[in-house]
Amino acid sequence: MQPVKISIKGDYYDCQIYRGRLYLWTFDGALKVYKWNELVQSFIKKETDKIAMTFCFLDGNYLYKSSLIELFKDPDFKRILLKKFNKIEKLSLELTEKELEKFLFGEQDTPTGIIPTDTEIYSNKLYFIHEKGLYSGSAHRPKGDKFAVSSRPKKFGIVI
Question: Following DSSP, what letter does each residue of 64-117 receive, concatenated?
């Protein structure tokens, strides 16, 4: 079985999926935040594909629950589930930048205006680093806020 993937056309240098949102950093210094759950659900055309799409893109933790691990020991159940994964593996899960726009949650300049070398989101905080230092700011902010990510991150330290 080949990996199941969603391809988004465009030039991006980093991405994060965090709590139902897709964070994309562009080479022109923008940070775009998309509604990941809605994006994935847009590919579910048949109810029979929902389980595999959920396991692949929305909540892979289902696969590790002790109650399901017992089901995987059943060859009939395992065969049915693998058949579902093989079916969605063949789907064309691809979006253009234009098609992606309908899922836009927010867009802003990259905080500090310098493209980060690396990014991470943890516990509703965006951490990023570039030649001027290590920074942190709030992420996963409500829709009513002006920016999806804090535009005034705090500096942690310098890069040596």
Answer: G-HHHHHHHTSHHHHHHHHHHHHHHHTS--EE-HHHHGGGEEEEEEPGGGS--S
Average of per-residue pLDDT across 130-154:
84
| CA–CA distance, 137 with 154 (Å, rounded to integer) | 6
Can you tell me the distance from the alpha carbon of 59 to that of 8, in angstroms, rounded to the nearest whole number?
A: 20
Pairwise pLDDT comparison (43 vs 70), residue with the higher score: 43
**Mean pLDDT, rounded, for 73-78:** 88
Sheet holding 118-122, edge to edge: 118-122, 125-130, 133-138, 154-157
84: which 2 tokens? 């579902």
By the 8 A CB rule, do 119 and 16 touch? yes
Question: What pLDDT score does 158 carry?
Answer: 66
